[in-house]
Amino acid sequence: MPSAAISKYFDATENRKVRDDLLFAVEGVGEPKIAIDCGCGAGADISYLVSKGFAVYGFDIEEESISRCKARFKNVGGVTISKSSFNSYTFPRASLVVADASLFFCPKSEFTDVWNNIYECLYPNGVFCGSLLGPEDTMAGPEYSVVDYWPAVAVFEEEEAKELFVNFEILRFNVHRSSGTTPDGNLHDWHIFSVVAKKPNKVTNNAPAAPDAARPRRL
């Protein structure tokens, strides 16, 4: 995405309202309070998580995100910011993984490994809170500009999205369809699957096998 558009987007979202799914997810997270914010942007969710007593690891591939977050949290203990893609990031152990509007930009060819890493990094009873891109979204359509925005996006049918969570307990699964204007001023049709799910304390003997995109690798 061009740097001017990135700056405009970060300006618009730096102090955005915390989404209801994250408010809900945080209430279900126990100790240790360690969170990973995937695609941390300008740090709105990091700020909220810190206020709730979490140590937070944030990563983003955009340099401006990193510089903004490092400046914003330079005097805040327990915040670690890294420049990384999903595929190159080394996920620390965590009780909460937040991936809101960021897994969209993990290419499908890399998604299985990334999803395995997310599953594995969560403690038992750890919580995932994030969203996946549906096929009716503007970004999934032919008019989406890979030159102006992002070269690859991961798109899921609803049943595909649900299958990712076969080894989780789904606490919330909502489908969002709406039209409007993005924070950087572009018209957009949204088709989003938002999910809050808990990794079980242990997998029971009769639990269904995970599909390839969700099956955790053995350490």
The CATH superfamily is known as: Vaccinia Virus protein VP39
Radius of gyration: 17 Å
Largest beta-sheet details: 7 strands, mixed
* Level-1 CATH class name: Alpha Beta
What is the mean predicted local confidence, pLDDT?
Answer: 87
| Overall tally of domains | 1
**End-to-end C-alpha gap:** 36 Å
Q: Report the uncertain regions.
A: 204-219
Architecture in CATH? Answer: 3-Layer(aba) Sandwich
β-sheet strand percentage: 25-35%
Structural description of this entry:
By secondary structure, the protein is α/β, with parallel strands linked by helices. The protein has one domain: 3-Layer(aba) Sandwich (Rossmann fold), CATH 3.40.50. Helix content is 26%, strand content 27%. It has helices at residues 3-13, 20-27, 44-51, 63-72, 108-121, 158-163; strands at residues 34-38, 55-60, 79-83, 94-99, 122-133, 169-181, 187-198. The chain starts with a helix and ends in a 21-residue tail after the last strand.
